[in-house]
TrEMBL record:
UniProt keyword Oxidoreductase, yes or no: no
Protein name (record): UDP-2,4-diacetamido-2,4, 6-trideoxy-beta-L-altropyranose hydrolase
Taxonomic superkingdom: Bacteria
Keyword rRNA processing in annotation: no
E.C. no: 3.6.1.57
Active site: 20
Sites where the protein binds substrate: 181, 286
Species of provenance: Candidatus Accumulibacter vicinus
SUPFAM superfamilies with a match to the protein in the record: UDP-Glycosyltransferase/glycogen phosphorylase (SSF53756)
Gene Ontology terms, MF aspect: glycosyltransferase activity; hydrolase activity
InterPro entries assigned: PseG (IPR020023)
Keywords assigned: Hydrolase
Length: 371
Protein backbone atom coordinates (compact mmCIF):
# COMPACT_ATOMS: atom_id res chain seq x y z
CA UNK A 1 0.00 0.00 0.00
CA UNK A 2 3.08 2.26 -0.16
CA UNK A 3 2.17 5.72 -1.42
CA UNK A 4 -1.59 5.12 -1.40
CA UNK A 5 -3.84 7.97 -0.28
CA UNK A 6 -6.85 6.79 1.74
CA UNK A 7 -9.78 8.95 2.83
CA UNK A 8 -12.34 7.87 5.43
CA UNK A 9 -15.83 9.34 5.84
CA UNK A 10 -17.06 8.20 9.24
CA UNK A 11 -18.61 9.74 12.35
CA UNK A 12 -18.78 9.17 16.08
CA UNK A 13 -21.36 10.80 18.33
CA UNK A 14 -23.36 10.21 21.49
CA UNK A 15 -26.11 8.79 19.28
CA UNK A 16 -23.96 6.86 16.81
CA UNK A 17 -21.45 5.61 19.38
CA UNK A 18 -17.74 5.14 18.83
CA UNK A 19 -17.58 1.75 17.10
CA UNK A 20 -17.53 2.99 13.49
CA UNK A 21 -14.58 5.31 14.06
CA UNK A 22 -12.73 2.75 16.16
CA UNK A 23 -12.86 0.03 13.51
CA UNK A 24 -11.85 2.52 10.82
CA UNK A 25 -8.94 3.61 13.01
CA UNK A 26 -7.85 -0.01 13.29
CA UNK A 27 -7.80 -0.30 9.50
CA UNK A 28 -6.09 3.09 9.14
CA UNK A 29 -3.34 2.11 11.58
CA UNK A 30 -2.64 -1.02 9.52
CA UNK A 31 -2.73 0.94 6.26
CA UNK A 32 -0.28 3.49 7.67
CA UNK A 33 2.05 0.70 8.79
CA UNK A 34 1.91 -0.63 5.21
CA UNK A 35 2.98 2.74 3.79
CA UNK A 36 -0.35 4.46 3.05
CA UNK A 37 -1.44 7.93 4.19
CA UNK A 38 -4.87 8.23 5.80
CA UNK A 39 -7.16 11.19 6.37
CA UNK A 40 -10.51 11.20 8.19
CA UNK A 41 -13.48 13.43 7.43
CA UNK A 42 -15.84 13.58 10.41
CA UNK A 43 -18.69 15.85 11.44
CA UNK A 44 -18.26 17.62 14.78
CA UNK A 45 -21.10 15.85 16.54
CA UNK A 46 -21.19 15.89 20.34
CA UNK A 47 -18.98 12.92 21.20
CA UNK A 48 -16.83 13.09 18.05
CA UNK A 49 -13.38 11.48 18.17
CA UNK A 50 -11.37 13.89 16.03
CA UNK A 51 -8.81 14.36 18.79
CA UNK A 52 -8.25 10.63 19.17
CA UNK A 53 -7.80 10.25 15.40
CA UNK A 54 -5.09 12.91 15.44
CA UNK A 55 -3.43 11.31 18.46
CA UNK A 56 -3.15 8.12 16.42
CA UNK A 57 -1.16 10.02 13.77
CA UNK A 58 -3.81 10.50 11.08
CA UNK A 59 -5.11 13.70 9.50
CA UNK A 60 -8.61 14.59 10.72
CA UNK A 61 -10.74 17.18 8.93
CA UNK A 62 -13.87 18.44 10.68
CA UNK A 63 -17.19 19.08 9.00
CA UNK A 64 -19.43 21.66 10.70
CA UNK A 65 -21.49 20.60 13.69
CA UNK A 66 -24.91 19.02 13.11
CA UNK A 67 -27.91 21.02 11.93
CA UNK A 68 -30.82 20.86 14.37
CA UNK A 69 -33.38 19.87 11.73
CA UNK A 70 -31.78 18.65 8.49
CA UNK A 71 -34.01 19.08 5.46
CA UNK A 72 -35.77 15.96 4.16
CA UNK A 73 -34.95 14.26 0.89
CA UNK A 74 -35.25 16.12 -2.38
CA UNK A 75 -38.25 15.78 -4.65
CA UNK A 76 -36.19 13.53 -6.94
CA UNK A 77 -34.95 11.35 -4.04
CA UNK A 78 -37.58 11.48 -1.29
CA UNK A 79 -36.52 8.27 0.43
CA UNK A 80 -33.71 8.60 2.91
CA UNK A 81 -31.70 5.88 4.68
CA UNK A 82 -33.30 4.72 7.92
CA UNK A 83 -30.48 6.34 9.90
CA UNK A 84 -30.43 9.62 7.94
CA UNK A 85 -30.83 11.67 11.10
CA UNK A 86 -27.44 10.40 12.29
CA UNK A 87 -25.71 12.44 9.58
CA UNK A 88 -26.42 15.83 11.16
CA UNK A 89 -27.11 17.36 7.73
CA UNK A 90 -29.04 16.40 4.63
CA UNK A 91 -27.23 14.02 2.29
CA UNK A 92 -26.62 16.52 -0.50
CA UNK A 93 -25.12 19.07 1.90
CA UNK A 94 -22.83 16.45 3.41
CA UNK A 95 -21.78 15.30 -0.05
CA UNK A 96 -21.01 18.87 -1.09
CA UNK A 97 -18.95 19.57 2.02
CA UNK A 98 -17.02 16.33 1.63
CA UNK A 99 -16.48 16.94 -2.09
CA UNK A 100 -15.02 20.39 -1.34
CA UNK A 101 -12.45 18.79 0.96
CA UNK A 102 -11.49 16.01 -1.45
CA UNK A 103 -11.31 18.11 -4.62
CA UNK A 104 -7.70 18.67 -5.56
CA UNK A 105 -6.53 15.75 -3.43
CA UNK A 106 -5.65 12.26 -4.59
CA UNK A 107 -7.85 9.56 -3.05
CA UNK A 108 -6.95 6.06 -4.16
CA UNK A 109 -9.57 4.60 -1.83
CA UNK A 110 -12.51 6.39 -0.25
CA UNK A 111 -13.70 4.28 2.68
CA UNK A 112 -17.20 5.06 3.96
CA UNK A 113 -18.56 3.70 7.24
CA UNK A 114 -21.88 5.43 7.91
CA UNK A 115 -25.46 4.12 8.11
CA UNK A 116 -26.77 7.47 6.80
CA UNK A 117 -24.93 7.33 3.46
CA UNK A 118 -25.93 5.37 0.37
CA UNK A 119 -25.43 5.14 -3.40
CA UNK A 120 -26.71 8.68 -4.02
CA UNK A 121 -24.06 10.21 -1.76
CA UNK A 122 -21.40 7.90 -3.22
CA UNK A 123 -22.36 8.93 -6.76
CA UNK A 124 -22.07 12.61 -5.85
CA UNK A 125 -18.46 11.97 -4.72
CA UNK A 126 -17.50 9.72 -7.64
CA UNK A 127 -15.16 12.23 -9.28
CA UNK A 128 -13.08 12.52 -6.10
CA UNK A 129 -11.94 8.91 -5.65
CA UNK A 130 -10.48 6.10 -7.71
CA UNK A 131 -12.09 3.25 -5.78
CA UNK A 132 -14.76 3.04 -3.12
CA UNK A 133 -14.99 0.74 -0.12
CA UNK A 134 -18.10 0.64 2.06
CA UNK A 135 -18.21 -0.81 5.57
CA UNK A 136 -21.77 -1.76 6.47
CA UNK A 137 -23.73 -3.83 8.97
CA UNK A 138 -27.32 -3.36 7.85
CA UNK A 139 -27.73 -4.24 4.14
CA UNK A 140 -30.69 -1.85 4.05
CA UNK A 141 -29.65 0.42 1.15
CA UNK A 142 -27.84 0.42 -2.19
CA UNK A 143 -24.14 1.18 -2.78
CA UNK A 144 -21.98 1.69 -5.88
CA UNK A 145 -18.79 0.44 -4.22
CA UNK A 146 -15.93 -1.67 -5.54
CA UNK A 147 -15.46 -3.42 -2.20
CA UNK A 148 -17.97 -4.01 0.61
CA UNK A 149 -17.14 -5.26 4.09
CA UNK A 150 -19.77 -6.59 6.48
CA UNK A 151 -18.05 -8.31 9.38
CA UNK A 152 -21.23 -9.60 11.00
CA UNK A 153 -22.78 -13.00 11.59
CA UNK A 154 -26.47 -13.02 10.66
CA UNK A 155 -28.84 -15.23 8.70
CA UNK A 156 -28.42 -15.19 4.92
CA UNK A 157 -25.01 -13.50 4.83
CA UNK A 158 -24.09 -15.00 1.45
CA UNK A 159 -26.98 -13.24 -0.31
CA UNK A 160 -27.36 -10.25 1.96
CA UNK A 161 -26.15 -7.66 -0.58
CA UNK A 162 -27.54 -9.23 -3.74
CA UNK A 163 -29.11 -6.44 -5.80
CA UNK A 164 -27.68 -3.75 -3.49
CA UNK A 165 -24.14 -3.52 -4.96
CA UNK A 166 -22.75 -3.58 -8.53
CA UNK A 167 -21.89 -6.88 -10.16
CA UNK A 168 -18.16 -6.14 -10.00
CA UNK A 169 -18.23 -5.43 -6.25
CA UNK A 170 -16.18 -7.78 -4.07
CA UNK A 171 -18.17 -8.59 -0.92
CA UNK A 172 -16.29 -9.55 2.23
CA UNK A 173 -18.87 -10.94 4.62
CA UNK A 174 -18.49 -12.57 8.00
CA UNK A 175 -16.43 -12.23 11.20
CA UNK A 176 -13.31 -13.55 9.45
CA UNK A 177 -13.01 -9.98 8.10
CA UNK A 178 -13.63 -8.20 11.41
CA UNK A 179 -11.45 -5.11 11.82
CA UNK A 180 -9.81 -5.74 15.17
CA UNK A 181 -6.63 -4.37 16.67
CA UNK A 182 -3.59 -6.69 16.56
CA UNK A 183 -3.26 -6.86 20.33
CA UNK A 184 -6.39 -9.03 20.48
CA UNK A 185 -5.00 -11.74 18.22
CA UNK A 186 -1.65 -11.49 20.03
CA UNK A 187 -3.35 -12.36 23.33
CA UNK A 188 -5.57 -15.09 21.88
CA UNK A 189 -3.33 -18.11 22.70
CA UNK A 190 -2.77 -17.10 26.32
CA UNK A 191 -6.40 -16.15 26.85
CA UNK A 192 -7.71 -19.45 25.51
CA UNK A 193 -5.13 -21.42 27.48
CA UNK A 194 -6.17 -19.70 30.71
CA UNK A 195 -9.82 -20.52 30.07
CA UNK A 196 -9.18 -24.26 30.02
CA UNK A 197 -9.78 -23.96 33.76
CA UNK A 198 -12.70 -21.51 33.83
CA UNK A 199 -13.65 -19.44 36.87
CA UNK A 200 -15.98 -16.60 37.83
CA UNK A 201 -13.81 -14.22 39.80
CA UNK A 202 -13.23 -11.21 37.53
CA UNK A 203 -16.02 -9.22 35.81
CA UNK A 204 -15.72 -6.74 32.93
CA UNK A 205 -18.47 -4.19 32.21
CA UNK A 206 -18.50 -2.27 28.92
CA UNK A 207 -21.75 -0.83 27.54
CA UNK A 208 -20.27 1.02 24.57
CA UNK A 209 -18.03 4.04 24.29
CA UNK A 210 -20.74 6.69 24.69
CA UNK A 211 -23.48 4.83 26.62
CA UNK A 212 -25.87 7.82 26.49
CA UNK A 213 -28.52 6.13 28.66
CA UNK A 214 -25.99 5.12 31.33
CA UNK A 215 -26.63 1.41 31.09
CA UNK A 216 -23.29 1.04 32.86
CA UNK A 217 -24.83 2.47 36.03
CA UNK A 218 -27.78 0.10 35.76
CA UNK A 219 -25.48 -2.92 35.45
CA UNK A 220 -23.51 -1.81 38.51
CA UNK A 221 -26.76 -1.45 40.45
CA UNK A 222 -27.48 -5.04 39.45
CA UNK A 223 -24.05 -6.17 40.62
CA UNK A 224 -24.69 -4.51 43.97
CA UNK A 225 -28.09 -6.22 44.29
CA UNK A 226 -26.72 -9.65 43.47
CA UNK A 227 -25.17 -11.93 46.03
CA UNK A 228 -22.31 -12.91 43.74
CA UNK A 229 -18.91 -11.80 45.10
CA UNK A 230 -16.30 -10.64 42.57
CA UNK A 231 -12.62 -10.46 43.33
CA UNK A 232 -12.30 -7.61 40.84
CA UNK A 233 -14.53 -5.58 38.50
CA UNK A 234 -13.25 -3.57 35.52
CA UNK A 235 -15.59 -0.85 34.24
CA UNK A 236 -14.80 0.65 30.82
CA UNK A 237 -16.30 3.81 29.30
CA UNK A 238 -15.34 6.07 26.42
CA UNK A 239 -14.18 9.67 26.60
CA UNK A 240 -17.66 10.82 25.48
CA UNK A 241 -19.43 9.06 28.37
CA UNK A 242 -21.68 11.74 29.85
CA UNK A 243 -22.42 10.40 33.37
CA UNK A 244 -18.83 10.19 34.55
CA UNK A 245 -19.29 11.95 37.90
CA UNK A 246 -22.30 9.79 38.76
CA UNK A 247 -20.33 6.69 37.80
CA UNK A 248 -17.41 7.67 40.01
CA UNK A 249 -19.78 8.14 42.94
CA UNK A 250 -21.31 4.72 42.29
CA UNK A 251 -17.90 3.05 42.10
CA UNK A 252 -17.02 4.47 45.51
CA UNK A 253 -19.19 1.63 46.84
CA UNK A 254 -17.12 -0.95 44.94
CA UNK A 255 -13.65 -1.08 46.49
CA UNK A 256 -12.67 -3.93 44.16
CA UNK A 257 -13.59 -2.00 40.99
CA UNK A 258 -11.34 -0.10 38.60
CA UNK A 259 -12.60 2.56 36.17
CA UNK A 260 -10.99 2.78 32.72
CA UNK A 261 -11.72 5.76 30.43
CA UNK A 262 -10.94 5.35 26.71
CA UNK A 263 -8.45 2.67 27.66
CA UNK A 264 -5.79 1.41 25.24
CA UNK A 265 -5.70 -1.83 27.25
CA UNK A 266 -9.05 -3.34 26.29
CA UNK A 267 -7.47 -6.55 25.00
CA UNK A 268 -5.63 -7.09 28.31
CA UNK A 269 -8.79 -6.41 30.31
CA UNK A 270 -10.77 -8.88 28.22
CA UNK A 271 -8.08 -11.53 28.43
CA UNK A 272 -8.05 -11.15 32.23
CA UNK A 273 -11.85 -11.23 32.64
CA UNK A 274 -13.78 -14.40 33.41
CA UNK A 275 -17.13 -12.93 32.36
CA UNK A 276 -18.21 -9.72 30.64
CA UNK A 277 -21.44 -7.74 30.57
CA UNK A 278 -21.45 -5.74 27.34
CA UNK A 279 -23.59 -4.12 24.72
CA UNK A 280 -23.78 -5.69 21.28
CA UNK A 281 -21.78 -4.31 18.38
CA UNK A 282 -18.16 -4.66 17.30
CA UNK A 283 -17.04 -5.63 20.81
CA UNK A 284 -18.64 -8.99 19.96
CA UNK A 285 -15.70 -10.00 17.77
CA UNK A 286 -13.09 -8.82 20.28
CA UNK A 287 -14.64 -11.10 22.89
CA UNK A 288 -14.71 -13.99 20.41
CA UNK A 289 -11.00 -13.77 19.64
CA UNK A 290 -10.23 -14.13 23.33
CA UNK A 291 -12.97 -16.67 24.07
CA UNK A 292 -14.53 -14.34 26.66
CA UNK A 293 -17.97 -15.51 27.88
CA UNK A 294 -20.49 -12.69 28.09
CA UNK A 295 -23.96 -11.49 28.94
CA UNK A 296 -25.02 -9.15 26.14
CA UNK A 297 -27.55 -6.33 26.04
CA UNK A 298 -29.09 -4.97 22.83
CA UNK A 299 -28.89 -1.16 22.73
CA UNK A 300 -30.36 -0.68 19.23
CA UNK A 301 -32.20 -2.65 16.58
CA UNK A 302 -29.06 -2.81 14.45
CA UNK A 303 -27.50 -5.01 17.16
CA UNK A 304 -30.39 -7.47 17.39
CA UNK A 305 -29.56 -9.81 14.43
CA UNK A 306 -25.97 -10.36 15.55
CA UNK A 307 -26.87 -10.74 19.21
CA UNK A 308 -29.58 -13.24 18.30
CA UNK A 309 -27.30 -15.35 16.10
CA UNK A 310 -24.51 -15.36 18.67
CA UNK A 311 -26.95 -16.51 21.34
CA UNK A 312 -28.28 -19.27 19.09
CA UNK A 313 -24.73 -20.49 18.46
CA UNK A 314 -23.99 -20.61 22.18
CA UNK A 315 -21.24 -17.98 21.95
CA UNK A 316 -22.92 -15.59 24.39
CA UNK A 317 -26.09 -15.18 26.43
CA UNK A 318 -28.22 -12.38 25.00
CA UNK A 319 -30.44 -10.80 27.65
CA UNK A 320 -32.67 -8.65 25.41
CA UNK A 321 -33.24 -4.93 24.92
CA UNK A 322 -31.60 -2.63 27.45
CA UNK A 323 -34.83 -0.66 27.86
CA UNK A 324 -36.56 -3.81 29.15
CA UNK A 325 -33.90 -4.71 31.73
CA UNK A 326 -33.78 -3.52 35.34
CA UNK A 327 -30.99 -3.76 37.92
CA UNK A 328 -32.89 -6.71 39.40
CA UNK A 329 -32.74 -8.45 35.99
CA UNK A 330 -28.97 -8.03 35.86
CA UNK A 331 -28.67 -9.27 39.43
CA UNK A 332 -30.63 -12.40 38.60
CA UNK A 333 -28.60 -13.22 35.51
CA UNK A 334 -25.32 -12.76 37.38
CA UNK A 335 -26.45 -14.91 40.29
CA UNK A 336 -27.59 -17.72 38.00
CA UNK A 337 -24.38 -17.76 35.96
CA UNK A 338 -22.49 -20.97 36.77
CA UNK A 339 -18.91 -21.98 36.05
CA UNK A 340 -20.20 -25.11 34.35
CA UNK A 341 -21.79 -23.01 31.59
CA UNK A 342 -18.51 -21.33 30.62
CA UNK A 343 -16.68 -24.07 28.64
CA UNK A 344 -19.36 -24.27 25.92
CA UNK A 345 -19.54 -20.49 25.63
CA UNK A 346 -15.74 -20.20 25.47
CA UNK A 347 -15.48 -22.86 22.77
CA UNK A 348 -18.32 -21.47 20.63
CA UNK A 349 -17.11 -17.88 20.87
CA UNK A 350 -13.50 -18.69 20.03
CA UNK A 351 -14.57 -20.47 16.81
CA UNK A 352 -16.45 -17.43 15.47
CA UNK A 353 -13.46 -15.12 14.89
CA UNK A 354 -9.70 -15.69 14.76
CA UNK A 355 -8.50 -12.05 14.67
CA UNK A 356 -6.84 -12.06 11.25
CA UNK A 357 -9.46 -9.88 9.56
CA UNK A 358 -7.31 -6.77 9.09
CA UNK A 359 -4.59 -8.77 7.35
CA UNK A 360 -7.15 -10.30 4.99
CA UNK A 361 -8.69 -6.91 4.17
CA UNK A 362 -5.29 -5.28 3.56
CA UNK A 363 -4.36 -7.98 1.04
CA UNK A 364 -7.63 -7.53 -0.81
CA UNK A 365 -7.32 -3.73 -0.85
CA UNK A 366 -3.81 -4.07 -2.26
CA UNK A 367 -4.94 -6.55 -4.91
CA UNK A 368 -7.97 -4.51 -5.91
CA UNK A 369 -5.94 -1.35 -6.54
CA UNK A 370 -4.06 -3.21 -9.27
CA UNK A 371 -7.21 -4.09 -11.21
Amino acid sequence: MTGQEISFRVDASLQIGTGHVMRCLTLADALKAAGASCRFICREHPGHLLGLIRQRGHAAIALPGPVANPSPGSREHPFQPAHAVWLGADGSTDAGQTRTILQGLVTDWLIVDHYALDARWESALKATYRKLMVIDDLADREHICDLLLDQNLVDGMANRYRGKVPGHCVCLVGPQYALLRPEFSALRPASLARRKTPSLNRLLIFMGGSDPDNETGKVLDGVRLSRKPWEHIDVVVGESYSALQTLKETLANFPSATLHIQTPDMAKLMAAADLAVTAGGSVTWEKCILGLPSLVVILGENQRPIATMMHQQGAQRTLGMASELTPACYAGYLERMAVGELPTMIDCASKVCDGAGVERVLKILDNEKRI
